[in-house]
Specification:
Elements: H1 10-17, E1 25-26, H2 35-40, E2 46-47, H3 51-55, H4 59-64, H5 82-85, E3 118-122, H6 126-137, E4 141-145, H7 153-156, H8 168-181, E5 184-186, H9 193-198, E6 203-206, E7 210-212, E8 226-228, H10 229-233, E9 242-247, H11 279-292, E10 297-302, H12 313-325, E11 329-331, E12 335-340, E13 343-348, E14 351-356, E15 359-363, E16 366-368, H13 371-376, E17 382-385, H14 395-408
Parallel strand pairs: 1-2, 3-4, 3-6, 4-5, 6-17, 8-15, 9-10, 9-15, 10-11
Antiparallel strand pairs: 7-16, 12-13, 13-14
């Protein structure tokens, strides 16, 4: 996964190459800017590139032609490839939603639309960025509004975690690709109905995102010591030394709520073709590793049998090993009775106990922002809701939404 170091098998290849007289090939987490260096140093005779070709089928051509900056990057997230392979599901890709489709075309070869249209996209998270880029590649005039100072939305915050730094690669790519494609990006601009309609668009894509959910039925859930994962990852809140992260609540309704069923030849006993944990689950694990790297004592409490049960086998296996080495404790299958100023009152097996905490981070789902969408209904020719603004899920599904909407315009 992206949490492992780049080129982590190079020392093995180099050692073998020094001992044998046949060509040696090396793989695993080698980025495009490392390839020539590996060969120049004699660490291997060939560099094997696998997953990055799923992200960009023209990877090799661009690399050979010196167009590394144009490569649609793999971020080694495993969500569309390794995670789903265990579930006997065809591979796809977070950064390339077209991967695996019968009519897949590389992003730089997407055909032009029958007619050029003016498209307004609201929201610069994964869904809005993908919609903007694909629309521009199809020949449309695209205006993208983003309220924040930079693109990326909530997903870009994940890059603050030492295990998720590679997430930054996809947004660095979008910053280059949008400009090259001619997308007019307006940052620090809140899109109002009047502003959008004033552009007289032929189509509007609303990627408004979501707000963190609260579970009001739990006493103390709106207390001053309760914050969101986004508050912490963005730096708006600096938590105390002892942190409890509350996630995978029964209030969440995405993958964790999907009923599993037996799959023939299911070698891993996954019992599901879903490997898409929701944004709340991913955010909980990201902020846990982020805080553990900053010498916080971190505990995760979940109401379900497992932490982030919707996460795929590959990602989950490495995650739990990292949790163990970083002393991130997980308390599963508990009931959250009350959040107090000094911690969280839990119940498990009929026994109540207090888990000490200075700060409680609630990552228990999200609520789609639908205000702009509702205000625009019936006022534009084509209106699309994508990403968390349509349904709270995760970055991979958001990118897929953006791609599909753009291909319909």
């Amino acid at each position: 996964t992206m949490a492992s170091p780049r080129g982590s098998w190079l020392y093995l290849a180099e050692g073998i190459r020094n001992a044998v007289k046949i060509p040696v090939m090396v793989a695993k987490r080698i980025s495009e800017d490392m390839v020539e260096d590996v060969l120049a140093k004699g660490q291997a005779d060939f560099v094997c590139i696998g997953r990055p070709h799923i992200a960009d089928p023209e990877y090799a051509t661009k690399l050979l032609e010196g167009r590394e900056k144009e490569i649609l990057p793999c971020i080694w997230c495993c969500q569309g490839c390794f995670d789903v392979l265990w579930m006997l599901t065809p591979a796809t890709c977070l950064t390339n939603p077209a991967a695996g489709l019968p009519d897949e075309e590389p992003v730089d070869r997407i055909g032009k639309a029958p007619a050029r249209k003016k498209v307004v996209v609201v929201g610069g998270g994964p869904a809005g960025l993908e919609a903007s880029l694909i629309c521009a590649k199809r020949g449309h005039e695209v205006i993208l509004y983003e309220e924040a100072e930079r693109i990326g939305g909530a997903y870009r915050l994940a890059a603050a975690s030492p295990a998720k730094r590679e997430v930054e690669r996809i947004f660095e790519y979008f910053e280059r690709a949008l400009a090259t494609a001619g997308v007019r990006l307006l940052l620090r601009t809140k899109a109002t109905p009047e502003l959008v309609l004033g552009q007289r668009p032929d189509a509007v894509v609303v990627a408004a995102g979501a707000d963190p959910a609260t579970v009001k039925k739990v006493p103390g859930s709106e207390g001053p010591n309760v914050v969101s994962a986004e508050d912490v990852m963005s730096g708006r809140v600096v938590p105390g030394k002892r942190v409890v992260i509350w996630t995978c609540s029964h209030s969440c309704s995405f993958t964790c709520g999907v009923k599993v069923s037996p799959i023939e030849e299911d070698a891993t006993d996954s019992r599901s073709r879903y490997s898409y944990a929701c944004r709340a689950g991913y955010a909980a694990t990201d902020v846990a590793e982020y805080l553990a790297s900053r010498e916080r004592t971190v505990s995760i409490v979940v109401e379900r049998a497992d932490v982030v049960p919707g996460m795929g086998l590959t990602s989950r296996g490495y995650l739990m090993r990292r949790f163990y080495t970083k002393n991130i404790r997980v308390c599963s299958d508990v009931k959250i009775r009350e959040i107090r100023s000094d911690g969280v009152l839990l119940e498990k097996g009929g026994i109540e106990f207090l888990l000490d905490a200075d700060t409680v981070i609630a990552s228990v789902g999200g609520r789609s922002r639908t205000g702009l969408l509702e205000a625009l209904e019936g006022k534009v020719e084509s209106l699309f809701a994508v990403g968390d603004g349509l349904q709270v899920r995760n970055a991979m599904k958001a990118m897929e939404d953006g791609y599909r909407a753009a291909m319909r315009i």
